[in-house]
């Protein structure tokens, strides 16, 4: 495939970068498989413990120079990265579809997200504002500055193999940090392709070592990075179970974490909703990325008076889904990422049936197709079913009915996760209350929009078991920096705060 050659993905690939590619044939090999066919795409030499140590040391050295580079100059590097990504958008988008399995439109959209966050970060590089505050003491002032943290660990998941790295890396870079990226072992080629693109930019700006890569087993290098005091911040995207482990390990050394974990996202459909708008949003939220987004729509909490209409229109759309090769422009839904994902999906469907749920649209494994293909499922359930309380990373959509707004909010909030939420209504009272303290308890709440497809301008993240992290826009940049408060005396006397008198200053 020509786009693999364009992205430098030929032959056996080295999976460690620290200013240069590191690796030898004695490293363990990782094979990347195409979820559409089950066939291998490429082989990567994994990072070992010695490689990891070299990466950290070189990153530390690079930081000494990078932290003193003026922030607007750092922004120019990210501006050039955006331009380089524009050149390779088509190729990188195709690679995302090939290796991860999301349809081409979503693959291209993910690369556009990278470009957008880079553009945002360029502007941010001139807006890392501190504050100046009045002092109670004469001829004194107080000010705050924001300084870089150091070496940042970025751990990303398979479902967004390039965009989530950029949310962190573009912002952290303009903040003056250097990065070590550990991508998912399910999508290593995407990470190497991005690193190749970044390297062109870093070489032009003489900043090799700012962006680094380790591809290896969690037990070999992942755990080591969590425990490494030289890495003050770990940004982790993944499951709730693994996120709790990350928080515990990093917390024991008093390190910082940004945790983007699971979602159990719901769309509330009120009796006065624009049904077509709601159904279109639910359809994308449930089917996009084959239900493998942390923001995928899992639950539809629908007023009993419009439930039948909503279900009827959803089933009509499901009947038109074209499942197949994600690189085919006619495809609506690609494969799940691997066999384990199918097994988890099948187990969830069985749990729904055992709990007394009613299958409205029968899904499951598609026999006779190469790769990891399934049909989506719609089931009518109760919110308190154990399986409904969990996140199933697959196209499994739950229908739950309610009688009034207060019941809808109670159902909505009664899950452990708290990432994304939405309500469809034309009623001002419902809309405002949904985003009030008495409404959705998620980190993101939308009105007449679905749960999936966030823009980069707002801070992305959730509450409760979603981890509380925030990435991307707004003031999420502060998480990658340390605050320095300075009191400055420009007078000639020594004056203590709070009017304290200490000792005898008279001669």
UniProtKB/TrEMBL annotation:
Its EC number is 1.2.1.3. The active site is at 260. It is an enzyme of class 1 (oxidoreductase). Residues 21-482 form the Aldehyde dehydrogenase domain. One of its GO terms (molecular function) is aldehyde dehydrogenase (NAD+) activity. InterPro entries: Ald_DH/histidinol_DH, Ald_DH_C, Ald_DH_CS_GLU, Ald_DH_N, Aldehyde_DH_dom, ALDH7A1-like. Transmembrane segments: none annotated. Keywords: NAD, Oxidoreductase. Homotetramer. Belongs to the aldehyde dehydrogenase family. This is aldehyde dehydrogenase (NAD(+)). The lineage of its organism: Bacteria, Pseudomonadati, Acidobacteriota, Holophagae, Thermotomaculales.
């Amino acid at each position: 495939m020509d786009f693999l050659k364009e992205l430098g993905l030929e032959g056996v690939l080295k999976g460690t970068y620290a200013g240069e590619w590191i690796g030898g044939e004695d490293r363990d090999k990782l094979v990347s498989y195409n979820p559409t066919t089950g066939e291998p795409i490429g082989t990567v030499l994994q990072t070992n413990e010695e490689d990891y140590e070299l990466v950290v040391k070189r990153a530390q050295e690079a930081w000494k120079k990078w932290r003193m580079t003026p922030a607007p100059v750092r922004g120019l590097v990210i501006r050039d990265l955006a331009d380089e990504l524009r050149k390779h958008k088509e190729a990188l988008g195709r690679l995302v579809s090939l290796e991860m399995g999301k349809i081409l439109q979503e693959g291209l959209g993910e690369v556009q997200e990278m470009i957008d966050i880079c553009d945002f970060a360029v502007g941010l590089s001139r807006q890392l504002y501190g504050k100046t505050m009045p002092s109670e003491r004469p001829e004194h002032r107080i000010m705050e500055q924001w300084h870089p943290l150091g070496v940042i660990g970025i751990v990303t998941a398979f479902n967004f193999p390039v965009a989530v790295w950029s949310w962190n890396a573009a912002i952290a870079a303009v903040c003056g940090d250097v990065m070590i990226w550990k991508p998912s072992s399910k999508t290593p080629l995407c990470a190497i392709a991005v690193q190749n693109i970044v390297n062109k930019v870093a070489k032009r700006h003489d900043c090799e070592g700012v962006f680094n890569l380790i591809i290896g087993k969690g037990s070999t290098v992942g755990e080591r990075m969590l425990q490494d005091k030289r890495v003050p911040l770990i940004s982790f995207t993944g499951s709730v179970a693994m996120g709790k482990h990350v928080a515990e390990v990093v917390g024991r050394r008093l390190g910082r974490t940004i945790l983007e974990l699971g979602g159990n996202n719901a769309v509330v459909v009120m009796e006065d909703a624009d049904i077509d708008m709601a159904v279109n949003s639910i359809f994308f939220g449930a089917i996009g990325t084959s239900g493998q987004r942390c923001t995928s729509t899992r639950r539809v909490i629908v007023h009993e008076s419009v439930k039948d209409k909503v279900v009827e229109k959803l089933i009509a759309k499901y009947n038109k889904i074209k499942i197949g090769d994600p690189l085919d422009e006619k495809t609506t839904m690609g494969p799940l990422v691997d066999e384990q994902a199918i097994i988890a999906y099948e187990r969830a469907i069985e749990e729904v049936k055992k709990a007394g749920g009613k299958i409205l649209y029968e899904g499951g494994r598609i026999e006779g197709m190469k790769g990891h293909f399934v049909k989506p499922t719609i089931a009518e359930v109760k919110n308190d079913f154990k399986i409904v309380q969990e996140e199933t990373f697959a196209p499994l959509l739950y229908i739950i009915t309610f009688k009034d707004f207060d019941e809808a909010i109670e159902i909505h909030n009664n899950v452990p996760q708290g990432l994304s939420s939405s309500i469809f209504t034309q009623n001002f009272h419902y809309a405002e209350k949904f985003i009030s303290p008495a409404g959705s308890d998620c980190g993101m709440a939308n009105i007449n929009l679905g749960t999936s497809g966030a823009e980069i301008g707002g801070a992305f993240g959730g509450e409760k078991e979603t981890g509380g992290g925030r990435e991307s826009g707004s003031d999420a940049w502060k998480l990658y920096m340390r605050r320095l408060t300075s009191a400055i005396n420009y007078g000639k006397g020594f004056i203590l705060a709070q009017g304290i008198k200490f000792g005898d200053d008279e001669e």
